[in-house]
Amino acid sequence: MSDPSTSQQPSAAIRWAVACGIFLAAESALRVFWIAGGRWGYTACDRTDSGDVAGGCGADRVAVLPFWPGWGALAAGAVLAVVVGWALRSPGRAAATAAWVAATLITVAAFPLHLLFEIPAALAGRPSDWRDLGARLALVAGGVLFAGLANACGPRRGPRAPGYRPVPRWTRRWAYAAVALPGIGWTLPHVLWVLGVPFGMSGQKLADAQRDLATPTGVAIAVVPPLAGLLVLGLVQRWGQQFPDWVPVLGGRPVPRLLAVIPAGLVAIALVTYGTLSAAVLAGQLISGAHEWADVREGWAATATLLVFLGWGVALGVTTAGYARTTGGGTGRTGETPARPGPSPVRNPGSRA
């Protein structure tokens, strides 16, 4: 039985639960359609190399649907439906933890870093797999919905103090690191490769990189990460807590806490996951002999970008935690709950006031 004093208002949890239910119903209906033989919205570009990216790489010719896009996704949806029901029936810390885990897994499955590169390239005219992009965007939306459910059914927080609350110094340092890492560790080498400078790679690898980084892909890959990194500054600046006065309608109003915490937290999880899994795959290839150390030395700059993603995710995660702590309940300037005042001292009746 849950403790009513530790849960959010039921109406908020119901709204988020209904939204999560709609997401799960839509995804499940699409998977049933694929299992029945339909292929609208389905892509096979991750398993075939037909070159028909805009057409789903021959998705219409796939006779047997793989497990995870079909029955596997339906099983996962059933588990997520149980989480939604748990959050409605017994809101509290345990249900909120389960919803946060669900939000994390959905976001990792979406791999939003792919969207960070592919959407600008698609808008610039490069042929793109719209089915894959749409599926990833839908999963990102699902991750946000489950994160909202987790917040709504979790422990009650104290009222948020009005106005701007400066973040701790350590939060600012991590934010600056999160801004610098994508610029120095990602954009700089990619710009050099586009310009033909063999920074950290051999001549043949440079030629392959230039072919992959042809316009507009190269521009998107080089420009989007540092621009996204600049958004991290909002977690340590006034405009991350209060809309600037020049913003129409919203000027001067407080920024909703979840509007900053949920996207930043999910992106941090995705970055750390991608960096960790990519490093593990590379280590496995080196151990099995599928990849040689000589290749790593010839392309050390490209290999180092894996560490850039990992460090970027850690820095963003710590910064997000500092922002969440600062903007939480209480009246302390840096997120700490002020100490309770002790009892008033007993005044000597014979002394003057």
Automatic annotation (TrEMBL):
The keyword Transmembrane applies. The keyword Chaperone does not apply. Residues 325-353 are annotated as: Disordered. The chain crosses the membrane at residues 12-34, 68-88, 95-113, 133-153, 174-193, 213-236, 257-287, 299-324. Keywords: Membrane, Transmembrane, Transmembrane helix. This is Uncharacterized protein.
